[in-house]
Amino acid sequence: MTTLHFGRNLVSCLRMVGAMKVAPLFLLTCLLGLLVQSPCLLAQKATACEVKGRTADCTHLSLKEVPADLPADITRLDVSHNMLPALPGPSLARYPQLVRLDASFNDIKRLESDMCLALPLLRHLVLRRNEVHLLTEKDVLHCANLTHLDLSSNRLKLLGEPFRPLQRLTRLDVSASGLTSARLGSVPQLWSLKKLFLSGNAIKTIKSNDLSYLSNSSIQTLILSSLPLKTLEPGCFQQIRGLRDLVMDSSSLSPQFIAKLSEELSGTRIASLSLRNIKLVSLTNTTFIGLQDTNVTSLDLSSNSMVSLHNSPFQWLGTLERLCLNENNLKHLTSSSFTGLGNLRVMNLTRALVKSHKSPYPIIDDFSFGPLTRLETLLMDYTAFQGITANLFSGLESLGHLSLSWSSVGLQTVSGKTFASLSRSPLRTLNLTGVDISRLEPGAFSDLGNLTTLLLGYNFISQTLTGEEFRGLASLEELNLYRNRKISLSPLSFVFVPSLRKLILGLALAQNQDFDPSPFQQLRNLSTLDLSNNNIANVMEGLLAGLENLRVLRLQHNNLQRVWKSANPGGPVSFLRGLRSLETLDLDSNGLDEIPVTGLSGLSQLRELGLAGNVLDHLRDSIFDDLDSLRVLRMQRNLITSVPRGVFGPAFRNLSVLRLERNPFDCTCESILWFVNWLNATNASVPQRGSEYICNTPQAYFNKSVDRFNPLSCKDMAPFYALYVANCILVLLFMTTALISHFQGWRIKFHWNVLVNRTLGFAEPDLGEARFEYDAYLIYAPEDSKWVERHLLPLEEDKQYSFFMEDRDSVPGRPQFEAIVEAMRSSRKIVFVVTEKLLSDPCCRMYKAHQAMHQVIEDSRDSVVLVLLEDVPDHRLSRALLIRKGMLKSRCILHWPLQRERIPAFRHKLQVALGSSNAVQ
Ligand SMILES: *[C@@H]1O[C@H](CO)[C@@H](O)[C@H](O)[C@H]1NC(C)=O
Ligand SMILES: *[C@@H]1O[C@H](CO)[C@@H](O)[C@H](O)[C@H]1NC(C)=O
Ligand SMILES: *[C@@H]1O[C@H](CO)[C@@H](O)[C@H](O)[C@H]1NC(C)=O
Ligand SMILES: *[C@@H]1O[C@H](CO)[C@@H](O)[C@H](O)[C@H]1NC(C)=O
Ligand SMILES: *[C@@H]1O[C@H](CO)[C@@H](O)[C@H](O)[C@H]1NC(C)=O
Ligand SMILES: *[C@@H]1O[C@H](CO)[C@@H](O)[C@H](O)[C@H]1NC(C)=O
Ligand SMILES: *[C@@H]1O[C@H](CO)[C@@H](O)[C@H](O)[C@H]1NC(C)=O
């Protein structure tokens, strides 16, 4: 690019240097400029063409010869707007693959015969605006492959049969080349020619034989515009019977000439005749008589000055399907204006009837369109006529589309009678945009039952729509009331148009509408609703309820900020709830400063969201969370300072266009780092990214582009952040450990013990009953030690039992847990003295209980004995000691009796329990 610009600079400098007697100062500036760019000078090639793919653009380089340094395989070369004097074969031979060569606007004086020889694949040759003068057959002898040749705006002098070699040519343009005759050859040639341009030459007459060289060609279109034509000799078009389109625009042709033309076209296959802008003032009943023997289907008479169409001028054109009369000056249409046009499908009368300064309104008689029974489209935009009379449109039995936009037709009040003459037409579209309507009466369109589109924008309708206005429009799908300003809606406004799909009420409504109940509730099929520019300040939650098919909702330029405020009495109004199909939502310019959390929830189909021009600042997290399909987000011109992931992350997921410019960004790590990184990585289009995303704070970035924010500056924070996180984790870990070891430490120790014993092979060998050092290991709460001393210890003396009691027998200094394990191992039975106290003694009790159970299970011993001093429910027991009464044999569960006389029996039972075998049965 630099190279190119430099090249252009250089060239323009040199050109100026050459062109004028340059002031030394100027020269100095030029040279300085060159010096500054001297690195480019080295890289500078001989030319500065722009090559894209296989196309080379060498325009505007003041070239004097074809550049020699382009890629050899280019297929298209544009050397227009240069100073080439010729196109010599040798210089083009470097590009043998050229298919298209444009050398317009040069100084080429003649075609070199070796050019085509060098370019065997050339198809398009454009030589517009050159100086080509003499043209001979030899010059184009090798150009047989050409399909398009443009020699317009030269000063041609044809010698011999210069076009004869061009057998593949389909399009030949020799417009404005000073030719005085249409005769480009004398023998049949140009077999393949389809389109011939002869416009703008000095051809005054077309002689009988002038076009005979086309007699065996495929010509379909002949352009004869802007010629000073005066005479047509008989039979001149008879030579080219394949002619379908004849264009004779922008000449001055008299009615007599047109009549003669029609006569000459008689019997040809002409289908389309264009006679635009030929200063035609009137037509007579015989002007087109010659066309009755043709199948002409399209006639263009636009941009003339025709004043009248009396006397059935078109009576001969029974096959005509399309008639353009736009831009004329018709004063009066009568019932004879269109006689004979029974096949017409489209008629364009745009600006065909106009009211000039002093002239009276043009008149259209009743039944003027009567003959047009097959007319489908009638365009009467920008026309002026006296008024829509009772039978104006009578007879238009096929009319589907009528457009009267911006016409001046006295339509202030539309009543049931206005369009009664269309009652037999299957009208589907009626365009009444800008026709000064101020009032619609009940049943105004009731005769138009097939209407699907009714355009009433840009009028002055000011009334309350009761619904009666649209009675009978059961098929209506589109109603446009844009820019009427003073319409009021009532709950029944649209009751008769339940099929509406598109309702445009932008800039249409009077102030202070309350919409309660909603006028839209019947419109189940509504897909587009435009309520923009209405200054609406108040909406109910149910305004859009039930509009499940709504896809486009436009609410821009209203005054909805209160509706979404959390301070709104009753809370923010979720008026978008339930709009499941919504794809486009425009809330631009509503003064919004808050978006409630549920404001946009459920809009999973939304593709385009407009919130531009509000005063949004801090947005709540997750307001955009449901917008899974969002592609376009517009939030430019708000007060957004930070773009955090929590808010924008979901909205930015799959964006294709983001408009967030012109917000006062706070360029700090917390506010903008995530956004800057997103911008750097995104493929989305972000218009004006370089110029309109400006930091407002902090001072260091004030007035600088967001792109200048350096994400690396946030890296400094990273170690601190890591430290912080590590600290937190450590503290948490510590606390957890402390808590666990407080409440569950016994469990850890227990499993540790089991593990150690297993792995180190401490599992004791089965030594039989003999190995036990103690008869029982006693587990009791400290508070119950009195009872133990009184009722159990005596057994040691009386019956020679030996018990292990922790506080008595444990060896001081040994770790408590290990001692417990060992003591349990060497005890034949484990006796729990169960009281509430034991059950609520946390640490040791749990450990001991677990260890005991482990012992029981490991050794398959039936070694647990419960002595219940109090009545304890089973669930307490199982929770606290992991023991269920049901797990034990009944003789191992002893209840301390309340009656003193039963104590001996208890003692006996205890001895039985302690003496029972440990083997599991
Ligand atoms: C016309 O083009 C064909 C390839 O499409 C080529 O082989 C032939 O030589 C060309 N003829 C002339 C006269 O250049
Ligand atoms: C007419 O054109 C065809 C090609 O379309 C050609 O083959 C034939 O020779 C031409 N006839 C005359 C008489 O020129
Ligand atoms: C054309 O109109 C004239 C009267 O203006 C009438 O005498 C003549 O018969 C009409 N010719 C045709 C063909 O309608
Ligand atoms: C609509 O047009 C069709 C014919 O195209 C016709 O049969 C039907 O009656 C028309 N409906 C109304 C309501 O006019
Ligand atoms: C709504 O549209 C559906 C399907 O397009 C159609 O069947 C139904 O008749 C329409 N409802 C109304 C009230 O026009
Ligand atoms: C993004 O949007 C495109 C176009 O709508 C869609 O094809 C694609 O599936 C979407 N990707 C994701 C991840 O949503
Ligand atoms: C932008 O992204 C590229 C790679 O995707 C990375 O090399 C570059 O450093 C980034 N620039 C900034 C400013 O983050």
From TrEMBL:
Location(s) in or outside the cell: Membrane
InterPro entries to which the protein is assigned, alphabetical: Cys-rich_flank_reg_C, Leu-rich_rpt, Leu-rich_rpt_typical-subtyp, LRR_dom_sf, TIR_dom, TLR3_TMD, Toll_tir_struct_dom_sf
Recorded topology in the membrane: Single-pass type I membrane protein
Alphabetical UniProt keywords: Glycoprotein, Immunity, Inflammatory response, Innate immunity, Leucine-rich repeat, Membrane, Receptor, Repeat, Signal, Transmembrane, Transmembrane helix
Transmembrane regions: 720-740
Single GO biological process annotation from the record: toll-like receptor signaling pathway
Family membership: Belongs to the Toll-like receptor family.
Protein name: TLR3
Organism classification: Eukaryota, Metazoa, Chordata, Craniata, Vertebrata
